[in-house]
Amino acid sequence: MSSTSASNLHAKVWSIELILDVRNKSLNVQKRKWHSAFVAIYCSRAFLKPPVLKDININTKLLSRSPSHTTISVDDSVSVPDANGFRIDQTRLTELVKAKDLNQLHELGGAQGVAKALETDVEHGIHGEDAEDILKRIEAFGSNTYKRPPKKGFFHFVWEAFKDLTILILLGCAALSLGFGIKEHGLKEGWIDGGSICLAIILVISVSAISNYRQSIQFDKLSKVSNNLQIEAVRKGRRQQISIFDIVVGDVICLKIGDQVPADGLLQDGHSLSVDESSMTGESDHVEISITQNPFLLSGTKIADGYGRMLVTSVGMNTNWGEMMSKISQDTSEKTPLQARLDKLTSSIGKVGLAVAFLVLSVMLVRYFTGNTVDENGSKMFNGSKTKVDDIINAIIGIVAAAVTIVVVAIPEGLPLAVTLTLAYSMKRMMADNAMVRKLSACETMGSATTICTDKTGTLTMNQMKVTKFWLGKESVEKEAYSSISPCVLDFIQEGVALNTTGSSNRKGYSIMGGS
């Protein structure tokens, strides 16, 4: 501090001391109050007023006169990372794409701003080889899977087989046969007929339930295989094929014609991209996707035209597609046409058997009570009041047992079982030949097929396209004439082919069968 400033401060302090010295003088009370007020005002002004520093270059604007007038500048464009380390939460991302809110997207800085908030490099993608990064994204935003309906247990199929009309009729017959047999022949021999029927019922129910249960398990495996699509993603600057279930929020996905959009996201870049949203909205018209007007891509939709790259913002149950798929239950109990016809035939035969058994029961009861039934000795079995009650009960039991026998014999309980075993065996053999059987009815259909008619274009191919002929200017060039083309022209053609492709190769230079 300079000598001038020091002298000024010294003068102020000396003045304050003189003023404070007035308390020692004999002043009246009123003047003393005025002096006290003057001292307070003067001292406050002296301490609040900064000294004039002429020799030192200090910007006095940086000094604040009062804490109450301090201005703090806050940049609200910079968001604070949440507990998971990202600058945006899942709720905001989900609502952004579901509502297709362009205003909110602009507030976030567009797709580039969202990518920055998700710590994603739009050119090189995420660090796919870093397990901690993948795990952190799964914990923050979830995985690209959805809840499936609970699997049906074995006893569910047992109960379904038990509710069959034929089985119920046989159970009734088994109960009657057991009761009447034990009553007539005793426990030692009377249980044989009824026990045989029960054993047959248990066998039919067990085989049917086991077959349906194994079919359900096989269907779940096939469903997982068919839904496990391979998606091309950019991770650590390299395109690679990953499972659709391994996609996480922040991934950069490459899309082309025919691909299914694996998750909700935002378009990063592309050309002439249009999608078919009929699976979500029911509208068959294709929707144009552009960075400025409509950059939103919904999970489950199909790429109808063009190509592009998208930034994944929501996966799994945070998408409309995941919510919808989690509510769909796969019905594996659908019967094949042959099974349906055989069940109908079995039911018809059973009804006829019941009618015949009821008719036989009625006729035999009428003959018995009218005295037209005789025993082994030729005497009448019913003589009115002379017949004992036990003899009447035994005779009625024998008549009912005969009717039950007719019903048991008439119902072909082994027919549906034979068909089920045949179809299960056929399915197993076809799976051994790497044939994916989605429906058992396909076994019946293919068993009757003699000729397979297919489209000649694009159906049975090796997924390899070769050029056999092309036009160079006004001249047609075929395979034999390619050597006559100038090397400069060939270089231009190769560059044009390389630029007009979505194919890629890995770092080692090996070709990848992908793109178009």
From TrEMBL:
GO cellular component terms, A-Z: plasma membrane
Domain of life: Eukaryota
The enzyme's E.C. designation: 3.6.3.8
GO MF, one example: ATP binding
Membrane topology (UniProt): Multi-pass membrane protein
Domain Cation-transporting P-type ATPase N-terminal intervals: 104-182
Keyword Cell membrane found: no
Pfam families listed in its UniProt record: Cation_ATPase_N, E1-E2_ATPase
TM region positions: 161-182, 194-213, 349-369, 392-425
Broad enzyme group: hydrolase
Compartments reported by the entry: Membrane
Keywords in alphabetical order: ATP-binding, Hydrolase, Magnesium, Membrane, Nucleotide-binding, Transmembrane, Transmembrane helix
Name of the protein described by the UniProt record: Putative calcium-transporting ATPase
Organism placement in taxonomy: Eukaryota, Viridiplantae, Streptophyta, Embryophyta, Tracheophyta
